[in-house]
## 1
Amino acid sequence: MRVVEFRIDRRSGVATYLQIVQQVRQALRLGLLAPGDKLPTAKEVVAATAINPNTVLKAYRELDREGLVEARPGLGTFVRRSLARPEAAADSPLRAELADWMDRARAAGLDREDVTALVASVLDSTCFDDRHGGDRATPGTGTT
């Protein structure tokens, strides 16, 4: 059984329940969680993060609404479907290239915020358009 450990950043400006939702989605995309895996109980998350149990339940309800997990009364909350792609796996060539790029960015003196801003800028300006399911976009037009 795979286990996800939530990390809550109270200074991020992102609602706590959304941080949980985002972390579950990320784990699903990276293949860290798979269909049938059980998410930690609200009680376990509260013990590890010191957040309100209703916050955990709100996050799990959102994930259920999206069809990613399902609550089984008396048993827990289980992953229903994966978002993983082989290209994003831990052993993929793209991930290795990105890790190498991150090493170069760190060596050049960039910190986490610099890298985040740079990646967001490139995503926003040249690569993807969320309105079209993540298809490659034509720069500056919002069209594919």
## 2
Amino acid sequence: MSDSDSGTAGRSQGEMAQLSAIELNVNDQVRRLEVDPRTSLLDALREHLRLSGTKKGCDHGQCGACTVLINGRRVNSCLTLAVMHEEDEIVTIEGLGDPGGLHPMQRAFVERDGFQCGYCTPGQICSAVGMLAEVEAGWPSHATADVTSPRIALTDEEIRERMSGNICRCAAYPNIVAAIRGIAVGGPE
């Protein structure tokens, strides 16, 4: 079987999915793609746009390795379809910063050694950026001590609860919490 046949094995010609032409605004660049309408945003980013920073961990929304920011909110890109995000602003780890100009959260992860193997790190960083925006907006979590307070106290327990959707198999959690706390209390800018 040739490479061109491998994706169509078991389907008749009438069952072939039509490709959808879409435009995605990724990291402030409009990118045009033709994708199967069932293509996840994760696969569009990695396989079609070659943005490999967003990782495929579980492909079930349970590990957070694929976390990106969509309109400033953190989203597991494996659980959403690319065709759903034509009007949205998508930011991946590549769009937060680069080696010459790191985002403050990226810098904090480096300074606090908030990673080990690094596989989960892009999702952890995108999630942390989105999480701090949620705190700034006053969104309580399960661990929020006083949900009536206009200001959420970002304790270690609060950070751990809010980041619980991001798994680090190397267990760098204490350093991840320290990096986030450092930014939250006015760390390096």
## 3
Amino acid sequence: MVQGNRSITGIADINQLAPATVKNDFLRMINKGLLTNCYMDEQSMRIVFYNDRTTQNGEVDNPIIERDDWISDNGPESPQLLPKMVECSGCGSSSLLQPSEIKPCPYCDTSLTYR
């Protein structure tokens, strides 16, 4: 994506995956709200960003989109999650976890999950 490749088959080739797998992964990310500034054109099998502009030679003029420029069809943006202390259920120690992070407790190796 950073390279400006928006073709499902191109992304599949680069990552050595089946195009159907890449298509399903993108659709899942879009439906879960992880990619809120784009949609998949299933006819051309390309990812289209709402604020992409195409130059006269067909290249994307805006290949990298800053977070502030994203457009969401999902209503107001959800609040940004912050790191938090998580208490270990195994030994009671606390560790700082980032949103969606899962890591072992440094003392007893119990899995800690940010929730």
